[in-house]
Write a structure and sequence with these properties.
mainly alpha
């Protein structure tokens, strides 16, 4: 039969497991930081896109109002 591991062997196994845990923890933190950076870039791009879209919407609205008022002016003008 196998004899149970001694204290030195158990201590070594615990140390190896702790090192693995620390490695995984560091990898997770790196992954989380990378995701946060990607999200920030995506949010910045979305904000820029939304701002650009608002400018176009405003320009189109002003042009439509101008055209509408011009047409109204021609229709209602005395001849």
């Amino acid at each position: 039969m196998d004899k149970p591991p001694d204290n030195h062997e158990l201590a070594r196994q615990v140390a190896v497991l702790e090192e693995r845990m620390n490695t995984h923890r560091a990898e997770y933190r790196t992954d989380i930081a990378r995701l946060a950076e990607d999200m920030a870039k995506r949010d910045a791009a979305r904000y820029k896109s939304d701002t650009n879209a608002r400018w176009w919407q405003t320009a189109i609205l002003i042009a439509a109002l101008g055209i509408g008022l011009t047409v109204y002016g021609f229709v209602t003008a005395p001849h």
